[in-house]
Design goal:
about 70 residues; about 20% helix; elongated; alpha+beta; two-stranded antiparallel sheet
């Protein structure tokens, strides 16, 4: 699989990860590794934030949306 962002820029770079949100293949240059909070609970409530975080790989586009929260 190739990096989608690099392909749009006319470069041929292997993807090293897939964005957990949109599924885009990304290379080391275009990925963001983020520690994401984990919530558990029933629908719709109550829910609680767990103590630990889980590392996730995001593309830069999804990361920018995630950060705006």
């Amino acid at each position: 699989m190739k990096c989608y962002v690099c392909a749009q820029e006319g470069r041929d770079t292997d993807a090293v990860a897939i964005c957990i949100v949109c599924g885009m293949g990304v290379c080391m240059e275009h990925l963001v590794r983020e520690e994401v909070e984990v919530w558990e609970g029933g629908y719709p409530f109550p829910s609680k934030k767990l103590k630990g975080k889980i590392p996730r790989i995001l593309c830069q586009v999804c990361y920018s949306v995630y950060e705006k929260g």
